[in-house]
Structure formats: structure tokens, C-alpha cells
Amino acid sequence: MNVLKNATFLGIAIFLIYTCGCEKIQDMRPPDQPEMMDSASIRVSVVYPGECLGDSSYCDVLFNGAQKAKTELGIDITEMESSAETWDMRLQEAAQTSGLVITSGYQMAAPISRVAPGFPEVIFVIFDAAVELPNVVSFTHRVNEGTFLLGAIAGLKTETGKVGYLGGADVPLIHEFEAGYVAGVKAVNPDAEIVRGYVADNEQGFYQPEVGGTIALTQYGLGVDVIYTMADQSGFGAIEAAKLAEGRYVIWNYIDITDLAPGVVLSGLRVGIDDSVYNVIQAFAAGDLMAGVRSLGLAEGNVGYLLGEGNKDLLSEELLEKVEALKAGIIAGEITVPTMP
């Protein structure tokens, strides 16, 4: 089948599917603060890095952590979507009403660096970026360790010897995902060919599923049979492209969506941002939240790969045993995973 001729049908399909190892730098608890604050007095805001709720990926995993804290801890949480034009304004609005402001994404590092100094009594938390300020808690993830395992899955699963990578934004953080993936492919399949593509050179590349689908169709047309998409909403296009191109697969990110496209989604990157959000809010309520930069990866149990009901028949026991052996090697320090392609 000529997969490229299906671009028109792809656009329709996309529309349907889419309609802690660190030093304790500073104790953030005031000297007279009790061990546990009354949940009714706690105000927390979550500022999403885009208009991204419903992406079944990066923003939704952040949302899930906030919802868990809201339900289980009984804490009032205000949530705001944002855009490049409103990042600073949304952070300022959140800081004016909350004692804890949570956000995520490399693109939010500069806005937090500008806003946080003006609100020294507010604690800011950012995921996937390092901001060293006295009232900022940063979590970085060694995502390359997790994507190494995804690359191994792709390299072991491919029948054509060609695998693809679809990045949302052509920026350093997304290159780190690519680096681990490529290294994982080569670790198990040294002769495999890797076809790379990026949707855009900035964060807008995460919100263009039709462009993502076109790139994926092109890669499938070149003989690629597995694509790892680190493109958030743009990755929906890759899923629809895989459905149009028989015998093609996608590897996803952050949330198990194997039930959304059974037989198409092989696996996904697991990053425990949802658990971290919950733990951060719980620590804030107890007055135990510390400023500083924390790095989390396989050894801390915060990074891994996803398995679900929709993909259990796609990955053999033998394949998973090989992936687990690689995982053990990384944790033991026997395998060093690159951070740049």
C-alpha cells in the first residue's frame, strides 16, 4: 500500500481522535510552622505549559497527580493552561493566590526564573528543568535511561530493520529522549537504520497532529515499522498513520494508551511525574519541601517503560527479558546512556 496517498484520510482521523538524589539546600518550612497544615488553608496552583489538557501524555500525567492530591489530601488546587504569551502572567496570578505553584517543561524555566524572585514566600516547583533559586524545587528526569529501553524494544521488534523517531520540538531536552532511544536501538540491533523527524523548532511542535501524522506517514513509506514519538499531541498523528500503514507501530509517552489503539501502540515511556506532583503537595502540606534540584531515573523507580492490556500480545516474554537485563545494567552502572545523539 502507498501510505503517502492517505494524507487526506489521516487529517480526518486525527480530528476524530483529538475532538531523589539531591542535597537538601534549604528548608522551606518557617520555624513556627506546625508539622501539618490544615488542608483547608493550603492553596496550590498548577500552571500547565500549554493549552494541552487531554493530550494523553505530558500534561495529563501532571493533571493526574494534581487530581490525586485534590481527592486524597482534600487540598484546594487551581489549574491554569497557558501559552508562550501568558506564561509569566499565569505564574504571577498563581503566586498571588497560592503558597505552592507547580509547573513543568523546559519552556517554563525562563518564566519561573523571572517570576519566582518577586514572590520569595511562595514555593515554585518545576519538572524537567533546573532552576537554582532559593524558593524553587526542580525535578529533572534521566529520560534517556527510559528511552534507551524503548529503543531496545523498537530494535528487537522491527522486521524491516528501520525504526523512526518523531520529536515535537527540535530542542536540547527532546534531543535527550532521542539520544537514549538511538543508543537502545543500536545496543540490540547495531545494523538498524534510524529515520529522524521533528515537527517544529519550538514548543508549537507539540500541538500539530496533522504535521506529526505527515512525518510519520513519510517514515512508514520509507520502510520504518516502529516510530517512537516524543511529540505529545502531534503524536496522535503518528498513531493514525500507523493504523493506515498495516504492520506499523508507535511507541508513546507518559501515559498507557495501548487501549486507545490496540495492536498499534507497543509501549511508552513512563515518567512518574504524577507521583512526584502528589508527593510534592503532600510534603508542602507537612512543611517538608526543600529547594534544590533532584535528578530521578531508573534507579529511583521514576523512569521506565509502560505495559498495558493493549500491548501484552505484541511484546514476547523473550523480548521483555532482554529489556529487563538492559535495565538492570543501567541501574548497576554497567551501561552508560548518552544524553546527546
Describe the structure.
By secondary structure, the chain is of the alpha/beta class. The chain folds into two domains: 24-142 and 273-296, Rossmann fold (3-Layer(aba) Sandwich); 143-270 and 303-331, Response regulator (Rossmann fold). 38% of the residues lie in helices and 21% in strands. The chain is built from ten helices and 13 strands. The strands form two sheets. It has a seven-stranded mixed β-sheet, with helices on both faces. It has a six-stranded mixed β-sheet with strand order 8-7-9-10-11-13, sandwiched between helices. Helix 1 crosses helix 8 (235-244), helix 5 crosses helix 6 and helix 7 crosses helix 8. The longest helix is centred in the middle third of the chain and has 17 residues, at 172-188.
In short:
This protein has 341 residues and is an alpha/beta fold. The protein has ten helices and 13 strands. The chain folds into two domains: 24-142 and 273-296, Response regulator (Rossmann fold), CATH 3.40.50.2300; 143-270 and 303-331, Rossmann fold.
Q: Mind sketching the topology for me?
A:
Layout: H1 7-18, E1 26-27, E2 43-47, H2 58-73, E3 76-80, H3 87-97, E4 100-104, H4 109-115, E5 123-127, E6 136-141, H5 143-157, E7 162-169, H6 172-188, E8 193-200, H7 209-221, E9 226-230, H8 235-244, E10 249-253, E11 265-271, H9 273-286, E12 290-296, E13 303-305, H10 317-331
Helix pairs in contact: 1-7, 1-8, 2-9, 3-4, 5-6, 5-10, 7-8
